[in-house]
Known about the structure:
Blueprint: E1 4-15, E2 26-35, E3 38-46, H1 55-61, H2 65-69, H3 74-85, E4 88-92, H4 95-108, E5 117-119, H5 120-127, H6 136-142, H7 154-176, H8 183-189, H9 197-202
Parallel strand pairs: 1-4, 4-5
Antiparallel strand pairs: 1-2, 2-3
Helix pairs in contact: 5-7, 6-7
The structure holds one DNA strand of 23 nucleotides.
Amino acid sequence: MQPNADSLVILDFETTGLSPDNGDRAIEIGAVRIENGKVTEQFQELMNPGFGISDFIANYTGITNEMLSGAAPCDQVMKRFADFLGDDNLVAHNASFDKRFLDAELNRISCQYRGEFACSLLLARRLYQQAPNHKLGTLVQFKDILASGNFHRALFDAQMTAKLWLAMLEDISIQSGLSEVPFTLIQKLSKTPKQQVSTFLASC
DNA sequence: TGCCAGGCCCTCTTTAGGGCCTT
């Protein structure tokens, strides 16, 4: 069975650090589902990793140990997220980071997923080569996307990534002439050398 | 004891190094 081609889940993790291989865990997951170019559902939960988070992470995210003390453990939250995700494909900003944590947390509960990842960072680096940088917040500003909330919280970052994603789909549609932009085309474009992006889109 | 991420991508590259992104 193939992943669901009509529906996409855009997700973001807040975590205790950068590497699940070094013992870091997820502390919050936020996600939105996009169907036919519109956000139709959202998911957000804090999760208790079972140990205290550093001052750096608390300051960076605004998530405190007190907030996490009342949260459900990671395994319960990730099971609910796996149910939410279903067979959809996935998008994240710097997807290699979120994929590592998704794989690590789902492995702990012996849970699989079928969807494939696309990366909004890799796509933005190709589409918006003139942007000052390709951080999520910078790209939201660069594309004049309305942003009212706190970056570095999972749901808000997922919502902003979703808006950026839809803006990129529109730009791809304009440049390629395609009325619908297949997920597989986006994955190919994300691996196309930057100098060949215009040629790639013109040949669609 | 000391160390501590990983993938992508560029370049003064490929027998390598360093910046960008994510927390």
